[in-house]
Amino acid sequence: MKWYEKYLSVYGKPYAGVPAEVMDGIRNRLRTLQSDEPLVSVVVIAYNEEKHLPACLWSLSESVCEYPMEIIGVNNDSADRTADVFEASGIPYHTELQHSCGYARRCGLQYAQGKYYICIDSDTMYPPGYVQAMADALQRPGIVAVSSLWSYMPDEGHPWLGLKIYEFMRDTHLWMQSFKRPELSVRGLVFAYNADYGRKVGYRVDIIRGEDGSMALGLKQYGRIGFVRSRKARAVTGYGTVGADGSFLNSFRVRIVKYLKGMGSYFTKKDRYRDDESNLVR
C-alpha cells in the first residue's frame, strides 16, 4: 500500500462525511507534534478546502521529525467548513480576509515562530519524512530556501503509466532549470525557506500567481535555492492546473511545448522578470 492511500478515504469528501474517530486521531497526533519553541513552522493555507484539508492534516499528523516544530493554519476567509476543520484539528489558525495565496502565505509568515517556514497547500498530502527532509536541506551551508517535487494520484482520466512519463519529464526539466534559475522550479506546495530572510523579502500580493517564485527570486540575494529530489520529500496532490487544459493528453502536450520553449533557462541566469499584464491584480 502506498503511504497516502489511507488518506484517500477522506480526500475529496465533505467534512460532514469525515468519521469522528479520524478527526480525533488527527487532533491527538497533531497535539503531540506542537512545540512552544519550534525550529520549523509548518504553515497550512486553505481557501474553501473542507474536502481536502482533513487528508492534508492527517498526513501531517503522522510526520516523523527530530526537530521541534509547530503546525499552524491560515483560513483565507473560506465560505465552506474549512474553519470547522481547523477548529476540530486543534492547531492554531488565523483568518486572512483578503483573498489570494500571497495574502494567506504572508499571514502565516507573520505568525510563524520557527527559523524555517515550510509552505503547505491544503489539497496536498505529505509523506512522514517530508518536514525532516526539507529542514535537513535548509541547514546545509549557504542554503536559504529549498523546493522539492510532487506526484499526482492516478485515476480513470490519468493512467499510471502516462503520469509517470509526464512526471519524469517534468522533474527532469525542473531539476535542470534549478541550476541557473531555481526560482522558476519553485512551486508553493513544496517550498520552504529561512523565515527571517523571507520577512525581509516579503510576499507579493499584487500578482495572481507566482508569489512563491517571486519570494525565491528575492531570497537569492541571501544564498542558494536548493533542490530536494528525495522521495521522502515528494508530496502527492490532485490535478489543479493540470486539469485546466482539458484532457490529460492535451495537458501533456501544452506542458511539453512550454518546457521546450523554456530550455534557454537551463543555461542562463536572470535576476529580474517582467510581470505579465494578465497576472497583475487589478
UniProtKB/TrEMBL annotation:
Q: What single Pfam family name could you report for this chain, choosing any that match?
A: Glycos_transf_2
Q: Which domain of life is it from?
A: Bacteria
Q: Which residues form the Glycosyltransferase 2-like domain?
A: 41-170
Which UniProt keywords are present, listed alphabetically? Answer: Glycosyltransferase, Transferase
PANTHER family the UniProt entry points to: POLY-BETA-1,6-N-ACETYL-D-GLUCOSAMINE SYNTHASE
The UniProt similarity line reads:
Belongs to the glycosyltransferase 2 family.
Name of the molecule in the record: Glycosyltransferase family 2 protein
